[in-house]
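Dock flavin mononucleotide; give full complex structure.
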Amino acid sequence: MVDLREHWSIGPVEIPTRLVLAPMAGVSVQAFRRQGRRFGAGLVCSEMVSSAGIEHGNERTLGYLRVASDEHPLAIQLFGSEPEAMAESARLVEAAGADLVDLNFGCPVRKVTKTGAGATLLDDPGRAERIVSAIAEAVGIPVTVKLRRGMRDGSRDCLEVGPRLVEAGASALTLHPRSAKQMYTGTADHALTAELVSLVDVPVIASGDIVSRSVAEDVLERTGAAAVMVGRAAQGNPWALEEIVDGEGRPPSREEVVAELVVFLREAVRELGERRASGFLKKFYGWYLGHERFPREFKQQLVVLDSIDEVEARLFAAAPGAIDLVERLEAELPRGEAVTLELPISIYGGG
Ligand SMILES: Cc1cc2nc3c(=O)[nH]c(=O)nc-3n(C[C@H](O)[C@H](O)[C@H](O)COP(=O)(O)O)c2cc1C
């Protein structure tokens, strides 16, 4: 029997459960990561952050480097293709307080691959190695890499590249065994994860289609992976994490759903500001209120409202019992300023 509550580690970083919350662009904000920790994720990860954006001092990019006090252990993920620039970015990731720096060698999106970053690096193992070794030399925290199986369907390139990256200094690998070409179609072929596990002596994290406890157990047993990573199943559904870690599912009440969504809204507004948050949050309404928890029209009513205050009022009107729950939840959480740590001055100064 697999124990998901077992501790494991990446280098010196202790990880309390064998469930990792996936990095997802446009999703993995602090609010998502902190909620993931509360529901059992042992390790959380930022969305991919552009090394070029950091280099140019882009303010929004630098905002992704904010680490809250209650989200450790946390990986911040970088993407880019220039070893020296990425090493410099990794220094800032370390200074910002991340426990791990993760490298994205898996993004299949053209905007990223055309710059030589993301999954393209699987076609350029020499450069991939140079990036890992430059970063491993530049920082004291462990360097980890997230890969796809390769660029093309049926590719087994990850089995050649993965061990070379470990040789170059990677302390763990995450494999999402789909090709870049597949995007999110088909299924993740975890037979490949098992092969990768047998080839390296660092922890391997299995990513792709982990949606329930039974799938998590099956993948851990079949592959020998150190942990499973959960992405889409956790969108608007932190209860899935609880079910995977503890093996006991319980559908949330409507009040719990609304309470978690309201806490999420408030945190996202604090993190992103109301204007950016209101666009960002719209997809979350469907994710939270779906799963047959609320009628479809309810979500449609929320997305057209002008302000987050109105959304909150509508949510509380639909589940008045959530008001007390939110108060209780917020009383337990570290509050506001205590949570969002300022970045070191040198980051803003570019030094
Ligand atoms: C909306 C979205 C955004 C993603 N962004 C990233 C990212 O920034 N970095 C990354 O390594 N993977 C990213 N991924 C891939 C996920 O981390 C994960 O490997 C993939 O979704 C498969 O896992 P799942 O079946 O549990 O969702 C993203 C996936 C989705 C759905």
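Observed: Residues 344-351 have pLDDT under 50 and may be disordered.
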